[in-house]
Amino acid sequence: MKTPTVVLMNVLRVGALAGCLQLAAVYPLAQTPAGGAQQPATPPAPPQGAPAGQAPGRGRGPQPVDPRVQIRMHHFAQTNEDIPYALFVSSKVKKDKKAPMIVTLHGIGGTHTTMMRPKAIDLAETGGYILLAPMGYNPRGWYGAPAPGGRRGAPPAANGAPNGATPAPAAPNAAAVPPPNAGAAPAQGRRGALPPGLLNNPNDPPNLRELSEKETLEVIELVRKEFKVDDDRTYVMGHSMGGAGALYLAIKYPQRWAAAAALAPAAFTVDAQGLSKIPKMPIMLVHGDMDTVVPVSVGRAWAAAMKAVPLKTYHYIEVPGGDHGTVIDSHQAELFAFFAKHKQ
Q1: For residue 212, which of 73, 90, 110, 252 sits 20 to 30 Å off, Cα-Cα?
Q2: pLDDT for residue 270 is more than 90
Q3: Does residue 149 contact residue 156 with C-beta atoms inside 8 Å?
């Protein structure tokens, strides 16, 4: 069975994206030589387009980087830029033994350190994981996934189509998802308006999503060359924009992953056709029923599509009272346990 399909016409509004950005933890960066030794997390400058000078807060501003996390730089030759990534390597990882790896992707406005939270690091240490967090080129690259608001992540134009474009015709296998609060005023948070350039930036290259995908895959290959990564136990996960990216990468590169997970994924068009191509891919979804940024209807629609395919293994957790940000931490233990059960 395949899910009836309609493409979402009215996609992510400015208010919804603004809410997402309030919850993205944008951490300090450290400059590390391209070779990659760990350096103290004291930034000379934020990544391009990242907010600066926000006050600390729970998920809303700069937070200390866990000292167990390595902040590294690599040279992205395609754009001739040095781009940071974050890496944690469990003390249980040995040079002569294959180690499992989790690739974790941040939400829009976040950075390579956003998902490197103490709970995730503790679980990675216990499980003997390598935990890798790419930047994805910049804070709004979408890891190659179609951006809800258009090519550069801009909000929809007045006619409801991204950047003023004509709405796309209905795709053959895209399930409809109701849009976020269409009448809501743009959220600005307690500390005033959003810094300019977070939702879109005139300096972003036109092929931003392509670059984001390539930079992410390049960082993964760097780590695979340095460590003895177990290809049968490599996983991808992400939150919000990163959740959309995790689903996109799982569908596009199923041979790379033993399982995938998406937390409140900002994937407003359900790719049922893509899911039908990966019926054996284990996927976990976590979504809060009080999420006002990415409505819980999005998670429910993806879960329904997985049931309809059907996927051999999928697990949907709906968190009572959970909002867009709390789901990052609320079910990390269940997520790691889910990954531990599956290998290629």
Answers
A1: 90
A2: yes
A3: yes
